[in-house]
Write a structure and sequence with these properties.
Layout lengths: L2 E3 L2 E3 L6 E2 L2 E2 L31 E5 L4 H12 L7 E4 L33 H8 L11 E4 L4 E4 L2 H10 L17 H16 L1 H6 L4 H21 L13 H20 L11 H11 L10 H11 L28
Parallel strand pairs: 5-6
Antiparallel strand pairs: 1-2, 3-4, 5-7, 7-8
């Protein structure tokens, strides 16, 4: 895992840790796209929504980037916001637009906007002397030639409302009357599930792993109980909270269960969570955003400190298209 220091890429082993606990760094670009270009909740103004102006850099393997891809599809913004997809393998120079042999993986793309070979080049162009991690997703402004934002939770809020003039304004994943409840459940799911699987996988002490493991499965148990009575996390309306959870659930049995040692139970062992995951996968436009081949390639081949052989398992067999029972909760 590398890092940029004073605008230069540096190879660096491991991940940030605090007494064995994995620590996720804060995102470094926090401006907002708004309908009129006014400043959003963080950062400065000047980024007005417009078709063709903005560009997403994502990885199909990354759950954080996957959030933005789903919302882009649900809001029908595919023709409004262009996109580039990095290779699933993260090597010594971080996210790249080609594999280690120079080829482009199926589902990935070259960088047609900035002609970069590596994602860190995009960060260097955006901020001279940048110090920090180089992560996806990245929301790029073609007009000013800079990164607007690289925090997925904020990007999906922008996509939800800023481009309604050109997208599907009828889809609102953060409705005003549910915002407080969405924020509360997002916090729990982020700490214990979204980031919780990483806290298990990247823990460097037994105590840190045990703590994250217990919190993860306690929260999954709670979510299983909640979904016995609610079709979605907050009742009968699907919200951003569901899609934020989904990107972890859809990777869980294929990657997190084995690779990150999150193996008390599979999602397939939870009747409600498993049916719920299948319903969300089958939501119009969502299946096309899920690429298990890229997901497995990234995790198993990139994390040599966890999987030194870099062998990518051929299983498990997962059928997200099987019928689900969630309509019973209408």
């Amino acid at each position: 895992m590398g890092v940029m220091i004073d605008g230069e890429w540096r190879e660096q082993g491991g991940f940030p840790a605090d007494h064995g606990h994995f620590v996720r760094p804060q995102s470094g670009f926090r401006n907002w796209v708004t309908p009129d270009g006014a400043a959003g909740p963080s950062g400065i103004g000047g980024y007005a929504a417009a078709p063709g102006r903005y560009h997403l850099y994502i990885s199909l393997a990354c759950p954080w980037a996957h959030r933005t891809l789903i919302v882009r599809a649900l809001k029908r913004l595919n023709d409004v916001i262009s996109m580039a997809v990095v290779d699933p393998f993260m090597g010594a120079r971080g996210w790249a637009f080609h594999g280690p042999d120079g080829s482009i993986a199926r589902g990935s793309t070259a960088d047609e906007i900035n002609r970069a070979e590596y994602l860190y080049e995009i960060y260097a162009r955006a901020r001279s002397g940048y110090t920090g991690r180089v992560t996806v997703p990245v929301l790029w402004d073609k007009a000013t030639g800079t990164i607007v934002n690289n925090e997925s939770s904020e990007i999906i809020r922008m996509l939800n409302t800023a481009f309604d003039q050109w997208g599907d304004a009828s889809v609102d994943l953060y409705p005003a009357d549910l915002r407080a409840a969405i924020d509360r459940i997002n916090a729990v799911v982020y700490d214990n599930v979204n980031n919780g699987v990483y806290r298990c996988g990247f823990a460097t002490t037994q105590a840190a792993y045990d703590e994250a493991f217990d919190a993860l499965f306690a929260t999954l148990d709670d979510l299983e109980a909640r979904l016995a009575h609610h079709r979605y996390l907050l009742g009968d309306r699907i919200t951003e909270a569901d899609w934020r959870l989904f990107t972890t659930l859809v990777r869980f049995d294929a990657v997190y269960c084995g690779h990150f040692k999150c193996n008390l139970r599979r999602i397939a062992d939870y009747p409600n969570l498993w049916n719920y995951t299948r319903e969300l996968y089958q939501w119009p436009g969502v299946a096309a955003t899920v690429d298990l081949a890229q997901i497995k390639r990234h995790y198993y081949a990139s994390h040599a400190h966890i999987n030194p052989t870099r062998i990518v398992p051929r299983g498990p067999a997962i059928d997200f298209t099987a019928p689900h029972d969630r309509a019973r909760l209408r």
